[in-house]
Amino acid sequence: MRPKLNLITLGxxxxxxxxxxxxxxxxxxxxxxxxxxxxxxxxxGVVLALYPRDKLAEDAQVSPAGxxxxxxxxxxxxxxxxxxxxxxxxxxxxxxxxxxRAQPVFWGGYNGYFADPDGHLWEVAWNPFFGFDEADxxxxx
Amino acid sequence: MRPKLNLITLGxxxxxxxxxxxxxxxxxxxxxxxxxxxxxxxxxGVVLALYPRDKLAEDAQVSPAGxxxxxxxxxxxxxxxxxxxxxxxxxxxxxxxxxxRAQPVFWGGYNGYFADPDGHLWEVAWNPFFGFDEADxxxxx
Lengths: 141, 141
Known about the structure:
CATH architecture of the largest domain in chain A: Roll
Oligomer: homodimer
CATH topology of the largest domain in chain A: 2,3-Dihydroxybiphenyl 1,2-Dioxygenase, domain 1
Number of strands of chain A: 10
Radius of gyration of chain A: 16 Å
Number of helices of chain A: 3
Largest interface: A-B, 70 and 70 residues
Strand order of the largest sheet of chain A: 5-8-7-6
Distance between the termini of chain A: 21 Å
Largest sheet of chain A: 4 strands, mixed
């Protein structure tokens, strides 16, 4: 099994609402491979997919019931501390819930969190120890 | 906000157990930026991180309580149908729970699911309509 994670699917309750947030709000480019109630956003390395939560559970053959902390967070890394503030302001303007206001973190960075329309948690983080390659992917030693 | 997802963090209950699964079991390369109870696996585009679940909730300033379906699935895309079977066999041998045995899916592919030591759901999927670039990332139109 090669070291790879190709795609992340977020289960959504209201597909149109989520599409509006990611495609129209954030302006992320939607792949033409999207169809019906599945949306694909190629993010230069990993693909983010949106799919109805019930159908996602059905595909995995698990119960759709679940509540509270999902135990997973997604992170958008910024290139400056100021960009963290800017991004959180942008998503707040789009109606996202700010879960944690931007603030310094003990490890030397600066982060905040927002919840997307389904409560999926996004960390917006500036890590002064991380760099980016030409595709904006993180460079880690 | 550029279209980007840099890092995914899986909250884990037993850090050593998860490290054993991903690093020793799957053989995924651990970044030397890992330290203490945070592990980083650069997966050629996105970084997978492991971090204690309680601390992850604390970082996001949310309650760590949560149960049932997380509403998120991660996907490893294979290059053949046979590779789906092989990967599921590999992770089953490592002690992962097979949630859905590999089978044809209505959209024309073939998939199965396993749960990692913390129950995080991984889809292992062969999609005959998707291709890969030289970095093994999915190519979507």
